[in-house]
């Protein structure tokens, strides 16, 4: 790894990591440059095989890091990453046997998540190998680099290294802008493999789901538009019932086929998850390769020192984890029922009673401010509760947190609509509220989520340029310095969640928006069939705006290893069951105009239809397999191949031992 980097590597290697350090003040005395913190850090990076590009910005200096394939391969071998081989088996990576491993769909050897782990391993494993403390200098101050301590951690603790973050690859970013974010003519077609290579499997899974969901929305959108615009007269209730049955069947089939598509993506992206295992989503033994290097070392160290645990210890840990999750979920549900439900019902009732538009506007403003405060408190409490649960990895903790927080949003998004639909039985008011939520709210949310990051970035950029001008005031000799690309990226906001950023990134808000939209159009489909058409148009726009947001307005996100939509799949399934119940109630309200709630043949037929649809959901989920047959066949073929290879190797080993024993006897 100490070999010189050739000119070809400089041209082909992309800079993917940025390290932010202070600008040199120029106060270093002669001889101090040898022990200067930044100079030593750059020298150590180069000794580790990294390519370093130093960029001086307006306020800070930036070290852009790139790595040749050999450097990444050696780091992957040290991390003991598992990779897919040509025979379909995941084996520990060895750089000397690189030809045995499959390439990614784009032709590269490592995925973005694997490269990120290798970068982190390289830069954080630079330690003081001497037996004495090294004294480093930083603007006249001394920094003690103790033996065995990582250099980067030491400089971070002293505030010299301000941040380490992924940076955009300009060539790939511009290519994705052309083929993805600005390619409006293809509607829902997206370069999913390129997205996966650049952003990782989790973000690619979101856009694959969003694209498939939008394509499938075309059928209910066309059907709903017909039901809304055509007057069927006395057959209107029958047509609504047929529309209701169709969208429930559509939703159940969509999620079954999404599971099949997700299984295919897992195989294509060389993920190690068993696709249809409902009880254990991931194999814990294979999750080590997806942990951060620090967690990996801690886990491996624990495995070496801990004694083997017995059956009782595993059972105790298992049931304690179930109990903690049950306790935390019960606390959240009781809090929602006792605190948030009365607040939401009081707001809905007061809003219905008020006659003045000014009063309604003021009440809505107070309500919106209050619920934002509630959401932040609920998110923080949920994060603390999840920490006490026995979740195996960060993705499991994130899923547990999502379930808890979604309850808050579910209550605040739908309780007012339930109030208008069930208590007042006012279908016209219900449609007005749905139009307001689906059109006005989503347009405003899209404007805010795309404009706020740009405003934050513009404000930080203005402050940086202003501070530079103040420092240079009176010194006309220096030329005007423009902001570099890496400094602009540093000033951009992180792709983080609005709440609970400790466990989730910006995908939480994107999935939450989709889930709330899905619940809105599904649970009140009979009251407003046109909602599917509005949702389809919004999702077509959402694909491009979300892509533009990631490529132009945010930093490059830290990759996540998961390649599924996680807890959101169960949330969508829950919303389907809720929509069966709510739409049956809406049909009863439309049928029973007088509100007598007597069991008549029409109401009895609606109640029977509810039970039939619940049974239909269960039947469809069993008829359509969650995994394509070709994936099962490939897995069986690979398993057979591995079994044959192991059998032959075992037989050769047994034969060798037998021959060795006979030779000893002859001697």
TrEMBL record:
Q: How does it sit in the membrane?
A: Multi-pass membrane protein
Q: Which UniProt keywords apply?
A: Membrane, Transmembrane, Transmembrane helix
**InterPro entries the UniProt entry points to:** Anoctamin (IPR007632), Anoctamin_TM (IPR049452)
Q: Which residues form the Anoctamin transmembrane domain?
A: 195-637
| TM annotation in the entry | 203-223, 235-258, 330-351, 401-422, 514-535, 571-591, 603-620
Q: Mind naming one GO cellular-component term on file for this protein? A: membrane
**Location of the protein in the cell:** Membrane
Q: What is the protein name stated in its UniProt record?
A: Anoctamin transmembrane domain-containing protein
Q: From which source organism is this entry?
A: Solanum stoloniferum
